[in-house]
């Protein structure tokens, strides 16, 4: 019985391994610097021809969204097959072919809530990396208390008319479309008057303004909507039924934001940093045993989170938003922040550089990454809010 179950899976593993051996370009097997992240989109930039080739080859196999049905640009793989594919990609250190909020957050909810017409229209371009999406949830007075959002979508008969503002919209200045939560019934209780809508950012009336951050690199924007006309069929799911979709998408977001390391570039490992800081002996061993112990603990924590995330990802690939998403998000945020604290400590005075000598060069990136990691306990729901979700929904503790 066991043999008949495992044989097809092992056959699939052999097929994947052979295909990867023949198709992964050399550059794709090297660590991916932040500047080379393949975000896709209408104005996609490829740092090298190999990154374009890699995306095209993965798209042709449906492996950018391996578990999505073939009709929507995926490969229709089972959860086990998707797991095998991910393991084989990880085993050779292959870079992702595509990074995308569309793949991680929007796609899964479209599969569950969108009409057949919407699935056929929006999912294949996501899988091919042709449209880059951003997330329009937060507003100036609606963050943790997201259901207080005020951006309006009024029914004007043949279109929706959008007015309002979103904030902290990551990469809105580089995205093509935005998925938004809007208020469609101002008289209903706050959770019951919200809908989920898709908006092309090229529509007249949309203004995007970048927000500058302390880290120097700013993914954030404010997004303004002034009398923006949106076609009626861009509303996903039931009218005023957006809150359920919003919550489901947040689960996917929490899971995926942790899985991809919070935007953190990990191309330089902690032991490598220690080497660069002159803390290793001739054999490459870290001389300070206390530091060695702390780095080993950090690496074990990261590995444990990685394996737990991979297990939860299998549940997601099987079409279930994992109940573990808040636990993973909370733990990953803490671990990532700790990693960057440790990195700065390892680099000593060099770790807190800014523009100009003697801090120019790669070490400067560590300063920026450390500052960026401060947002990990806020994005995708704050740590306090996630602890609350864990208490209520995972542990079943009563509200006070
Ligand atoms: C890096 C990053 C990327 C982001 N990207 C996006 C994006 O693309 N799209 C988008 O829509 N938003 C985005 N956000 C916004 C993010 O979702 C919000 O910042 C977050 O939900 C918190 O909302 P807030 O900033 O209004 O803080 P608030 O909700 O005002 O919270 C302030 C503090 O009060 C605490 N608090 C609030 N309510 C409670 C409670 N009930 N119990 C206990 N403590 C509480 C919070 O934990 C926090 O410490 C991003 C944020 C960051 C940092």
From TrEMBL:
Cofactors named for this entry: FAD
SUPFAM superfamilies: Acyl-CoA dehydrogenase C-terminal domain-like, Acyl-CoA dehydrogenase NM domain-like
GO cellular component: plasma membrane
InterPro entries: Acyl-CoA_Oxase/DH_mid-dom, Acyl-CoA_Oxase/DH_mid-dom_sf, AcylCo_DH-like_C, AcylCo_DH/oxidase_C, AcylCoA_DH/ox_N, AcylCoA_DH/ox_N_sf, AcylCoA_DH/oxidase_NM_dom_sf, Mycobact_Acyl-CoA_DH
Pfam families in UniProt: Acyl-CoA_dh_1 (PF00441), Acyl-CoA_dh_M (PF02770), Acyl-CoA_dh_N (PF02771)
Acyl-CoA dehydrogenase/oxidase N-terminal domain boundaries: 12-130
Molecular-function GO term, any one: oxidoreductase activity, acting on the CH-CH group of donors
Domain Acyl-CoA dehydrogenase/oxidase C-terminal span(s) in chain numbering: 240-395
Gene3D superfamilies, alphabetized: Acyl-CoA dehydrogenase/oxidase, N-terminal domain, Butyryl-CoA Dehydrogenase, subunit A, domain 2, Butyryl-CoA Dehydrogenase, subunit A, domain 3
Lineage: superkingdom: Bacteria
Residue ranges of every copy of the Acyl-CoA oxidase/dehydrogenase middle domain listed in the record: 134-228
Flavoprotein found in the keyword field: yes
Keywords: FAD, Flavoprotein, Oxidoreductase
Family designation: Belongs to the acyl-CoA dehydrogenase family.
Protein name: Acyl-CoA dehydrogenase family protein
Organism field: Sphingomonas chungangi
């Amino acid at each position: 019985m066991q043999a008949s179950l495992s044989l097809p899976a092992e056959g699939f593993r052999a097929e994947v391994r052979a295909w990867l051996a023949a198709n992964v370009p050399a550059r794709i097997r090297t660590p991916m610097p932040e500047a080379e992240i393949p975000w896709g989109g209408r104005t996609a930039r490829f740092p090298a021809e190999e990154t374009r080739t890699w995306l095209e080859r993965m798209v042709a196999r449906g492996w950018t969204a391996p578990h999505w049905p073939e009709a929507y640009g995926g490969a229709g793989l089972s959860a086990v097959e998707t797991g095998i594919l991910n393991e084989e990609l990880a085993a050779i250190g292959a870079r992702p072919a595509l990074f995308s909020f569309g793949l991680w957050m929007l796609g899964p909810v479209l599969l569950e809530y969108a009409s057949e017409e919407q699935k056929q229209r929006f999912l294949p371009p996501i899988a091919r990396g042709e449209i880059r999406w951003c997330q329009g949830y937060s507003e100036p007075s609606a963050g943790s208390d997201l259901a207080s959002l005020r951006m309006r979508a009024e029914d004007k008969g043949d279109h929706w008319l959008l007015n309002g503002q979103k904030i902290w919209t990551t990469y809105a200045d580089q995205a093509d479309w935005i998925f938004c939560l809007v208020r469609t019934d101002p008289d209903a209780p706050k959770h019951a008057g919200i809908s989920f809508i898709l908006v092309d950012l090229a529509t007249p009336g949309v203004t995007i303004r970048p927000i500058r951050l302390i880290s120097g690199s700013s993914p954030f924007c404010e997004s303004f909507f002034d009398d923006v006309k949106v076609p009626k069929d861009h509303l996903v799911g039931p009218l005023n039924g957006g809150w359920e979709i919003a919550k489901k998408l947040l689960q996917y977001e929490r899971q995926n934001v942790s899985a991809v390391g919070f935007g953190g570039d990990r191309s330089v490992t902690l032991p490598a940093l220690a080497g660069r800081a002159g803390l290793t002996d001739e054999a490459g061993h870290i001389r300070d045993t206390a530091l060695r112990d702390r780095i080993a603990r950090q690496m074990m924590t990261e590995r444990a989170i990685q394996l737990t995330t991979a297990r939860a990802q299998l549940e997601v690939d099987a079409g279930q938003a994992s109940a573990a998403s808040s636990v993973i998000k909370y733990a990953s945020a803490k671990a990532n922040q700790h990693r960057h604290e440790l990195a700065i400590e390892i680099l000593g005075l060099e770790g807190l550089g800014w523009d100009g000598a003697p801090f120019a060069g790669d070490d400067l990136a560590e300063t920026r990454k450390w500052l960026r990691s401060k947002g990990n306990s806020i994005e995708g729901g704050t740590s306090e809010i996630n602890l609350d979700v864990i208490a209520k929904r995972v542990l079943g503790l009563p509200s006070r």
